[in-house]
Amino acid sequence: MSTLNVFFPAASKKIETIKILSLAQIKVRYRKSMAGFVWVCLNPLLLFGAQAFIFKNILKINLDHYLLFLLTGLIPWNILTMGIEMGIPLFYNSRELIKNFCVSPAVLVSSFLVDHLLTSFFTFTITLLAVYIIDPFPFTQSFILLPFCLLILIAGLWNMIFTLSMANIFFRDTKFVISFLHQLLFFLTPIFYPVNILPGFLKTLALINPYYVLILPIRNCLYPDATANILSSITLAVGFILLHMTLNQTLWKKERNSFYLKI
Amino acid sequence: MNIPLLEIRDLNFSYRFRKYQTQMTFRDLFVQGIKAPLSYFSAEDELPVLKDINLKLYAGDKIALTGVNGAGKTTLCRLLLGLLAPKTGKITHQGNIRGIFASSPGIYPELTGRENATILAHLLYPEYSLAEKKIIIEEALHFSELNQFIDMPFQNYSKGMQNRLYLSLVSAKPVDILILDEVFDGADAKFQEKITARFSAMIEMCKVLIFVSHSEENIKRVCNKSYLIQNQEISAC
Known about the structure:
The complex is a heterodimer of chains A (263) and B (237). By secondary structure, chain A is an all-alpha fold.
C-alpha cells in the first residue's frame, strides 16, 4: 500500500476510500449479528434448492450433472440481477457523499461491489461444495480459469450498475423497469436450459444477451461440455465489457453536469 | 512575483435546458415517443449559468460570493472543486482545496456518531496519515460536546447534534483554499458561538476563502472582498 501511495497517490486515495466505504456498508448490513450475513447467504442457496427441484423433477430437464449446469447459470444470474437491483439506487442514496465530499461515482460502485461480492462468492462456494457432495462432477483443466471468469462477471456487473444507477438519476423508475426486464429475461436467458434447445432466432438473441455473455465463461469453465469453447466465450465477454466501458465513459463525459444538477 | 492561488480564465458554463426543466421517467419517455417521436431528435436548448468568468485569487483573499438564489454561486463552487466540467475556459489552483456545502450531511445514519466521524475524517482529510486522522477525530468529538451520545446511532441525533458533529469535524484543520457554501446555520445558540469562533480561527489559517452567504453580518466578519454574480457575470462590489 505504501509503495502504491508513493507512485500512484490518486489511486491509493481511491482504494483507501473504497476500503472505508465498503467497511461502513458491511457494518450497516451485518452489525446486528452474524444472522444477517447467514441470511444473505442462505437466501440464494434456498432459492437455488427450490429452483433445482422444480427444473429437475417437474420440468424434467435431462442433462448430465444438471445440478452443476444449473449452478453455473443460476448463481451468476443471481449475482448479476441482485447486484443490479440493489445497485440501481446507489448514486441517489449516496448523493450526500457525491455532492458534499466529491466521492467519485466509480468509487461508490466499487465499494458497493466489495460488499455484494463477499456474500455472493461465499454462497457460490458453499453451493458448489453442496452440489459436489450430492452429484460429484469431474474437474476439467478449464477449472483453473474460474477466477478470471469471475473477474469478467465482476467487471460486467460494475459496468451495468454504473450505467443503471446513473440512469436512475434521470429516470426515477429505472428500478421498476429493470425489475420487470429481469423477470422477462429469466425465461429468455438459457440459465436453466441449454442454449441448443432454442430455435434459430431466439438462440441468436440469447448469444447477444449481455447477461448470458457474462455468465457463459463461468459455465464453460465449470461444466464439462465437449461442444463448449471457453476461449471464444471469454473473448466475447471481454469485448462486451470493453465496449460497455467505452459507452460508460462517453455517457459520463456527456451527462456529467446534468448528473450533478439532477442528483 | 505574486502568483494567484486560484485562477479562473474565460469560464463559460451552461446546463442543458430539457434536463434542467423536468424530472422524467421511462414511462414519460415512452409516452413522449408515441405522441411526438421526432422530439427525441430535437436539439436541446442550453441554459447559460456563467458567462466569461475571469477571477484571480491570491494568498490572503477572503472573498464573499453573493447573488440571488439560482444566480450560479453553488455552480461556480462545484466547478472550482472539479465536480462540474466547464463548457469553455480553465480553472487552475495551487495547493489543497476543500468545499463545505452542508451543515449536517447524513453519511450512514445507522452507524454511530463516532463511526460517522471516522468516515468523514477520511473523506475530508485524505492527505493526513491514519494516526493524524485519529487525533483529528478525537479532538473534534471532544469539541462537539456530544459526550455520552457519541456511540449512539447517528439517526437518533437531533438536527442540532448532527450539525455539532459535522461542523466540529470540518473545522478541525485548515486548508489552502476553502469554500464555504451557506454552512453556518443549524447549531443551537450556545454552540453556534463556539463553532463560529473555531471557524474564524480556521479561516484565518486558510490562504484563500470563498464564502457563499446571504448574511451580510457574516460576510463583513470574515471577508475582505466581495463579488456579485448577476446575469451570469461576476463583478466586484
